[in-house]
Amino acid sequence: MIDLIRAEVLKLRSTRTALGLLIAAIVVSVGPAILVMSLFPRDLLEGEEGAMAAAATGLTLVPVLAVVFGILGMTNEYRHGTITYTYLATPRRLLVIAVKLICYALVGAAVMAITALLVVAVIALVTALRGIGSPSWLDTATVSDAETLRDIGMFLVAVGFMTGFGVGLGALFRAQVPTVAGVLIWALAIENIITAVRPGVGIYLPFTVFMQLNFGPTASTGDGGLQLLSRPEAFLLSLAYIAVVSTAAVYISMRRDVT
Predict the structure, then answer these.
(1) 220-236 pLDDT per residue, tens
(2) Residue 130 in contact with residue 124, Cβ under 8 Å?
(3) In the chain, N or C: fewer CB atoms in 10 Å?
(4) CA–CA dist 253, 172 (Å, integer)
(5) How far apart are CA 190 and CA 187, in angstroms?
(6) Quick one: CA torsion of 221, 222, 227, 229, rounded to 10 degrees?
(7) Is 104 a residue whose pLDDT tops 90?
(8) Contact (CB, 8 A) for 66 and 111
(9) Burial class for 41, CB neighbours closer than 10 Å (0-12, 13-18, 19+)
(10) What is residue 131's DSSP assignment?
């Protein structure tokens, strides 16, 4: 297994997919933060919510990029035919997908962490240059608070899970463009519509579950104030989604040619 992990790390280092994710994440998150903090009037940026909104503007897109990164990581193997050599070297296909899930999940979480740190640094720098009071969530005492650290950890876990889910989807469907397009349409449109119309069903859909793992039951949906999933429930359901998709991918791959 160690050799398989080393081979996967080598693939990540020798291809441009991981670097592309990092560059794209920085562009979509740091760019809006710089524009908002630099161009918005001072009175709109004073206080807690102004800087927080600037930070969240682009960061919300990074998890979506992480899912696409996971899909590309698996579908590129089929697209370029390297999956054949991978399975010849390691015939246990479940092990191959499991290692890829772990490696890509760690990379996705790491990219999210780097991007978030850059956004926080940009906000702190621009607020200092413009003489705007720094929000309290940038204070050392607040950042080191146990609850804050837990929230940060859950956010990174959620992004890692979403990356792994993308790997599973890529292994299941193989076709790169239709899979990426279908997942984006589902995550950004269809699932939101279902959640708005049928919140009792929507809270169990995959990307809504990942969101609840990140934020926990901090809000209610629907007119009846529907209770969201707790973080442990969202954690277990997220694992279940990844396991089901990955198992289905292995089952199907055992019954068809990989070339």
Answers:
(1) 444 455 678 888 999 99
(2) no
(3) C
(4) 8
(5) 7
(6) -50
(7) yes
(8) yes
(9) exposed
(10) T
pTM reported for the whole predicted model: 0.86
Predicted pLDDT at 12: 84
Q: Which amino acid is at 40?
A: F
What are the residue ranges spanned by the domains of the chain?
2-253
Residue 151: what are its φ and ψ, rounded to 5°?
-65, -40
**23-81 pLDDT tens trace:** 999 999 998 888 888 877 777 666 656 666 777 788 889 999 999 999 998 998 888 88
DSSP class of residue 226 equals E
Q: Which amino acid is at 149?
A: L
Distance CA 72, CA 128 (A): 39
What are the structure tokens assigned to 218, written together? Answer: 């901090």
Mapped onto helix, strand or coil, the DSSP state of residue 212 is helix
Question: Kind and range of the H or E element at 221?
Answer: strand 220-221
Write out the two tokens for 187. Answer: 């995550």
Q: What is the C-alpha separation between 164 and 101, in angstroms, rounded?
A: 5
Q: What pLDDT score does 109 carry?
A: 95
Token duo for residue 149 = 């650290």
Q: 114 burial class (0-12, 13-18, 19+ CB within 10 angstroms)?
A: middle
End-to-end CA separation in angstroms for the chain: 24
Tokens 């903090």 correspond to 37
CB count within 10 Å of CB 66 equals 28
